[in-house]
Design brief:
Elements lengths: L29 E3 L5 E3 L14 H15 L1 H8 L4 H18 L3 E6 L5 H4 L5 E7 L2 H12 L5 E3 L2 H5 L7 E7 L8 H10 L1 E12 L4 H6 L13 E2 L2 H9 L3 E5 L11 E8 L2 H10 L4
Helix pairs in contact: 1-2
Bound molecules: zinc ion.
Amino acid sequence: MTTVPRACPVCGSNNASRPPHPYSRSPWVLKRCACGMVYLENPMEYSALVHDMAWEKTYAAEAEIRRRRHPILYRAARAPKTLWQRLLRRDKLVSWTRRYFAPGPVLDVGCAGGHTLERLPRQFVPYGIEISAELSRLAHERFASRGGRVVQGDALSALGHFDAGFFTGIVMTSFLEHEPEPHAVLAASARVMAPDARLIVKVPNFASWNRALRGGSWCGFRLPDHVNYFTPQRLAALVAGSGFRVLRGGIFDRFPTGDNMWLVAMREPQQRRDGAAASGALL
Ligand SMILES: [Zn+2]
């Protein structure tokens, strides 16, 4: 894990002197910033995520903890979903991609094994970024057959491998909650987007009723995998403060009864982003 306490990823405040949030689980220290953001103050280094603590391994370990603590709830949550539920969930990303992205190269940041973009129609060429060595290899095999490729590495470094204005759309589903540097990654993503490109984001909703009900047992808590716990307001502030204009992310994109929320944004024009960078201010 990192030795320097991480500052708030949304407003940049240092919360080292604040007490740990009650949902902390040793050795992992969560903090609630004065701006309302809850975040992990001592995340793992990127290097740990390549092999030893890669998502596919820590996910299995977390599932085992949940199975032992709450066996009935665990089985219920993993029970086969109805066909209707599966179709509804699958259609959302595909239909939003068709609606918001122009045909062309599309990037999935944190693409895991490539299953998300694999579902897109043929007018989209899938590209990915993935830190896990094993998952990036799997995704690359899938994407290369459609003319795309996967860059293995942390998102910030990997985004530097793509030309400015290259993508017609970027997908970040179940990614930003894992990223220790979400502001920098979003700003770097804006650089590789075409002027009319769109960004689709999906993250767990810390303000969901289920989180309030389940407390520390909420399915959105995954330590140390999840390092950011966004409310709708904090997510919108982060995205808007990183070179984007939020186009949608209202109540219909985050039902309080669901665990996740969705957002669509577009790049701010270049001069506005330059102004924001010059001021050096985060929201
Ligand atoms: Zn803050």
